[in-house]
């Protein structure tokens, strides 16, 4: 029992915790650097895509008139994206199934 209360025992325990904390800290720092690198690459990719979209948009406005563009846009507005309707679908379909 005396060994478990000695100063050297506590220093040994604290030292082992310090090592574990350092290992965890190093691991987190390495992962943060990796994640930061991935985020930087994704940001660059999104910037490139944004530039391409703006380039296509400006070319489109130069190639066709507003009346033709309005016809195309009207067709796009007739359809909703799946992600826009996903929540509504999850709410409505179960209620309809209960009614039937």
Label this structure with key terms.
single chain, mainly alpha
Draw up the topology in text:
Blueprint: H1 7-63, H2 66-77, H3 82-99
Describe this structure as you would to a colleague:
There is one protein chain. The chain is 87% helix and 0% strand. The chain is mostly helical and 100 residues long. The chain has one domain (3-99). The mean pLDDT is 79.
Helix content: over 70%
State the distance separating the first and last CA atoms: 73 Å
Strand elements, count: 0
Provide the succession of SSEs.
HHH
The SS-based structural class is: mainly alpha
Q: Name the beta content range.
A: under 5%
Mean pLDDT: 79
The description of the largest β-sheet is: none
Tally of individual domains = 1
Number of helices: 3
Global shape: elongated
Radius of gyration: 30 Å
Low-pLDDT parts are none
């Amino acid at each position: 029992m005396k060994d478990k209360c000695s100063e050297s025992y506590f220093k040994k325990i604290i030292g082992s915790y310090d090592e574990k904390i350092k290992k965890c800290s190093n691991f987190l720092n390495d992962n943060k650097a990796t994640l930061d690198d991935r985020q930087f690459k994704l940001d660059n990719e999104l910037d490139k895509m944004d530039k391409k979209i703006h380039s296509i948009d400006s070319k489109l406005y130069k190639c066709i008139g507003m009346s033709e563009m309005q016809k195309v846009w009207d067709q796009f507005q007739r359809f909703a994206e799946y992600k826009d309707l996903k929540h509504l679908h999850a709410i409505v379909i179960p209620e309809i199934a209960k009614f039937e």
